[in-house]
Amino acid sequence: MSARLTRLLRPDVQGLHAYAVQPSAGMVKLDTMENPFGLPPALRQALGARLGEVALNRYPAERSEDLKAALARHARLPEGCELMLGNGSDELISLLTLALDVPGHVVMAPVPGFVMYELSAKLQGVRFVGVPTTADFELDLPAMLAAIEQHQPALIWLAYPNNPTANLWDPAVIERIIEAAPGLVVMDEAYQPFAERDSMPWLRRHEQVLIMRTMSKFGLAGVRIGYLMGRAAVVRELDKLRPPFNVSVLNAEAALFALEHAQEYERQAGIIRSERMRVMHALGQHAGVRVFDSQANMVLLRLPPGCQPAAVFAGLKARRVLIKNVSGLHPLLGGCLRITVGTPEENTLLLAAFEAALQESRP
């Protein structure tokens, strides 16, 4: 790029790394926490016919309202709350950060956590404060309370379950954080279909709590539907920043179809939860491998001392299995790999490939 064009771009943007997506053609794809199941043939055919009738010449306003109503019913939205749609959760994260872009404001989150919290803050010019978890990836309550007291954050992100660690935080600790928070607390429930509890009790009790969910892990990662729930007065203010037609008619129709057939996606989630236990147990049988508890559709593990994550990752990739090497994302993740739970057949291939790759990497 020429010097003339370089001068036009923000220096901080030029210094960032783009969000990396690994090529996955021909691989057993277990790197991005997608639902590995497609629709049964009959439902696929029905969806195709329905999408063929969508009025692509019209803006999607009315269908978006229908989707909001359907999601509110699906989530059992409490009285006095409203729901806002996003083009995936990423757009909602950006809009929330934009809404709170006031000089001196701070965004806070436990780390390691979802990278978009920090990235969105940096792009918006809002200061981000990351508070390290404990070595076991639990919330460090004294550290969180001290950081809240010092920085008075306008927004605290709490992923529930967390990414990439896959665990649910202690409810008593979350309650203390919410009570201490001077601003909004957003519970990011991207992996809620796979968890044993959710954040609805806090939404009902606390006006500053918002819940963010996505249909990506539900089974529609390619459709890009996120939604934010909270007290009506708060959501209405945030909704002013939303582009008026941010969800396409095709995406809205596909999401409505999925909600009408929610039992199929619930069946798939049940298989994933069962397979998660099988994968965790099998991985934990290897000497020196630590498997962390998971309430999501992914498993975090730490390799034995001396085994290099890059070598195990490469060994799996050579066997056409793609996972995520998270060991360099944060010091607490040293030696860690993250594996998405796939279909039973994919998981069997994963476990065989992991055993071989691990043996190759042992010192």
Task: Please explain how this structure is put together.
With 363 residues, the protein is α/β, with parallel strands linked by helices. The protein has two domains: 3-40 and 263-361, Aspartate Aminotransferase, domain 1 (Alpha-Beta Complex); 54-261, 3-Layer(aba) Sandwich (Aspartate Aminotransferase, domain 2). The protein has 15 helices and 13 strands. It has helices at residues 3-6, 11-14, 41-52, 61-75, 88-99, 115-124, 141-151, 171-180, 200-205, 216-220, 232-239, 249-260, 262-284, 309-318, 344-361, and strands at 28-29, 81-86, 106-111, 127-132, 155-159, 184-188, 209-214, 226-231, 290-291, 298-302, 321-322, 324-325, 336-340. It has a seven-stranded mixed β-sheet, sandwiched between helices. It has a four-stranded antiparallel β-sheet with strand order 9-10-13-12, with helices on one face. It is globular and about 60 Å long.
Radius of gyration: 21 Å
CATH topology of the largest domain: Aspartate Aminotransferase, domain 2
The average pLDDT value, as a whole number, equals: 95
Shape: globular
What descriptors fit this protein?
44% helix; Aspartate Aminotransferase, domain 2; 15 helices; alpha/beta; 363 residues; Aspartate Aminotransferase, domain 1; seven-stranded mixed beta sheet
Summarize the structure.
With 363 residues, the protein is an alpha/beta fold.
Walk me through the topology.
Blueprint: H1 3-6, H2 11-14, E1 28-29, H3 41-52, H4 61-75, E2 81-86, H5 88-99, E3 106-111, H6 115-124, E4 127-132, H7 141-151, E5 155-159, H8 171-180, E6 184-188, H9 200-205, E7 209-214, H10 216-220, E8 226-231, H11 232-239, H12 249-260, H13 262-284, E9 290-291, E10 298-302, H14 309-318, E11 321-322, E12 324-325, E13 336-340, H15 344-361
Parallel strand pairs: 1-11, 3-4, 3-5, 5-6, 6-7
Antiparallel strand pairs: 2-8, 7-8, 9-10, 10-13, 12-13
